[in-house]
């Protein structure tokens, strides 16, 4: 798709320049905003990181290999293009080769930003890169030792994959059945796949392309199993891409999205790898087959484990927040231009028709997602800082280990609930935005379909959402006793007695719109759900259930909801902390966005407040609902400014419906008319002309 | 995809034969069902219609043109295949050429069943047929006169489309801007598209294929506009498929689904059609340009208008219920075979792992959708009978018009809320089922992606759901005064005073599971939402808003929710009426399914019961939620039987995860291993081998 007009945000040399939008159909609403979108953008995002993103986007925009296609390529061509783009992207060496000199936190944040910039434009390339280069190097560094370093920075010489999931086992990683049996005689591990159910599958990059796999298999030596370990396993000859003997490797076949990724499966049959290919930071096998655990450096190992578990999930959170912003930007800009029905309802005068953004129902469909986009964007930016701080600390042995271990647990609980929250939120928003753009939302050029298809697998991979949230609820239940929350997410647990006695007591409707009301309600709700979960678990155990069963019986309406509300609360906590530092011209609207997000989440949980006797009578429900509608109405005039502040440039959003110029119908006309094959007769026309008609015309 | 094993349901001559399933992994759960799935199937579906479906499926299954593709064809090839299949399907002349002799109701029901059978296997062919043949013939018969009849049964000689939507107008049909101006001199209408915003668009079949359009345009004669009328407009030469001069016609380009449909746009420039091409049943223009309205036969015209409005929506309801059944069947069968985690949590012994259907959370994710599939299937079957009865009556002038008009309004209100209910339910279910099948649900061969992509546009086309529901709520608000509900959906309005005073008063938890409790709760809720809507409208009008604005201000939490609850209530009403006739061995489980559907809907509305003081204290919320979990647990043992009763044959469901043999991993293995290109090196391998590597290997 062509890039139209002068960009509103660009690099001039090393300077970030933001410019006003030229006059156009969005002017009326843009002028209603009572703040400067440029100030808000620079408040929401780090200018240095914005510059890095612009640098990447400018490069891709001018590279023929990174042009978008009007017609969907075949799956095969999609794979080829994604593979070529990945190689090119690696060659670009973003952010720059100087990066290794920077301290860990700064360096990693920049790498993450590069990933965000790539993921929001070419998500499949980003996934291939993350799996095949980023995760691989990372794991080598954190789980391997000196002898594996040479693999970590191999650039385009190697492409890797991470083979963990098996056909019959996903979330339950301990039950993986692929074996690596040490043979002292040849000093090698012999890898075997017992049957098809234990074939590694869904492995990204494995289907057609990868040359080496990071394989997780049960380590056996001297007849004993030592659990899951990671091995470097050559898959294909890098010169020919022909798989090595002893391997059956193939592509998963057609999927319902991510067509550019070659997800694959592999079965091993007495496949040998050298002993040295075990990633041996935490444990090793001696040449004669002794298993040795080497927990000499627990701080580093803990950090490594954490980073491996969470880094991918934090990346998904960042990508989700970008996709959410794109979807909402498209739908809100569309709603400000698209008109439908008029107050008098009759007559042929179009000028009376209202933009659909004026309708209560339409505001209510979109603005809570816009509020979520803002809150979750701030949250993920701020949380990333916390996250990297903890990872950094955990890699330094000087820190006291006890506190660190609690911090690592808390990070894990936060990520395990926030990744589900953000991916589900984005899933719902992309669908609602598609529907809110009507039939035009069904165009590929609208991009909402792609955004939806990208987020869909995110709820499953890197930890199935429904399984992940259980790790958070288990942690929260432990916190009630332990009260150890170094990052402060459960600090309020110590006020348990006071908070649990709180009751809904609001005079004016507007009070429910305050941070104080929303956060106190959440604190009560979280403690209530802990009680409820705990009670149900105890009841089940008293009735004879084992702990595993008792936990399962306390998921619905209890533990699962607990994780959800905790994630929402945490996101709001980070958000309000950040916006307290905003200048006053921004604070009002940022506050309203926080309130709208908080209340529209609480609205879905209202029954718990009544069930737990926090509220009784009509007021709470009525005030929450009325406040949501009031906030929607007020945010209407701010909405185009909010979108301008959140949205990346048009090239990135890449939607015919969501351009910043607001020239919806001109842009649609260009898209439809410029499509080279739109108006040509199909090549196969003669096959569908009726035979009798053809006959007639011959006579 | 290959058809495996002996079908469980087949035609032997003219006999319908149902057979037990052969032994397999689903046996354990199948045996737990306390009823005979065959009895239930024959209770849920009309055996004559089942036979008709089997006849169609058998024919398609043996036709090379109707084989499924493992790899996704290009969009162009998709269009070609769909066009060829449409021609073949028309040639098959289902159900049979005798059909014209049958009475209207029976004939139409059979045509609808044919559409269902086609839509559940080849949805795009069904859509092309519905638009290009069914809707076209129907409209000719109902809006045209004798002179148009020859177009109605043209078979493959013509393919039509329905051109109503314009680029800038969808739901607001009155504002369409395409004009048809009568020119008495040449006795023709001159069609014009004032600008791109008035181009007809999204028209199915128009993009590449159709030869004639049913065009809706503003009729002008003698300088006066008479509103929207339907015209027959030749588009392409049937011999060459080349568009006629004066038309710019093209394809909408790449979409996010329905790739086989050639949705198109068209602009007219002084394009002339003969005067006779006006469909002139309700109004005509004389040769010298006088406009004459011919309302001589209001009964017929009313029926025609109704049929044109609603027939497509009833078709969508039927298709949604079939798609919903397929999605749920796939996910429930998968859940009964797929295992994950074990009570002891440790050890490598797989045999301890539980099928995921055993988990409370998983039951709660799937079984409410299974209950919805059952209830909505019964509803749509029963409602179709009512619908056809009313259409039939309205076509006969002998009926008293007053009552009929009320009946037609009620049908319209029912359809306008039920089409949104069912399409949204199916949208949510297909997504949840995809997620519940984890990564494997992301395979194209799982079919959940296709089911989701088919339902997605259904929430927009044939009346945008969010606009449609307003027609229902407007009607309901009028009913409060009028109390005229010949079909009985609002019969309880007359008990308004008594019902509004009702309060939640239940002793035992189990009482909330009864039909009586659920239906009474719904009646209270519907009346409460009518009050709330009315009150808000009045408040707005008292504050100076016009009626249009007042209505818009009362949508969220009020009118929109009112339509939703009315649709749920109506579906349950039809359902419980039907199952009261079930034999006792089926009644218990059917009752539980009704209760689960009702309660899981009410669960989402709980806050209204507290807000309206119907309930206070913990009991109602707690009992509703606990009952849902109890019902889920009880239905676990019945679930495989329910699925066997609901599900069409394997060929139709066409999912590697949802086969009735339950051999999940065998089927997956075959699918992966039989894919011809899965294990071959990509043709483009040399493009992604590193140059330096290549260099090295040359040295």
From TrEMBL, chains A, B:
Single GO term (MF): FAD binding
GO biological process, one term: fatty acid beta-oxidation using acyl-CoA oxidase
UniProt xrefs under InterPro entries: ACOX_C_alpha1, Acyl-CoA_Oxase/DH_mid-dom, Acyl-CoA_Oxase/DH_mid-dom_sf, Acyl-CoA_oxidase, Acyl-CoA_oxidase_C, AcylCo_DH-like_C, AcylCoA_DH/oxidase_NM_dom_sf
Span of domain Acyl-CoA oxidase/dehydrogenase middle: 161-270
Domain called Acyl-CoA oxidase C-terminal: residue spans: 517-690
Acyl-CoA oxidase C-alpha1 domain boundaries: 309-477
Residues that hold FAD according to the record: 165, 204
One Gene Ontology term, aspect cellular component: peroxisome
Gene3D superfamilies referenced in this protein's UniProt entry, alphabetically: Butyryl-CoA Dehydrogenase, subunit A, domain 2 (2.40.110.10), Butyryl-CoA Dehydrogenase, subunit A, domain 3 (1.20.140.10)
Pfam families: ACOX, ACOX_C_alpha1, Acyl-CoA_dh_M
Places the protein is found: Peroxisome
Required cofactor(s): FAD
Bilayer-crossing regions: none
Alphabetic keyword roster: FAD, Fatty acid metabolism, Flavoprotein, Lipid metabolism, Oxidoreductase, Peroxisome
Catalytic center residues: 462
Family: Belongs to the acyl-CoA oxidase family.
Full protein name: Acyl-coenzyme A oxidase
Organism listed in the record: Exocentrus adspersus
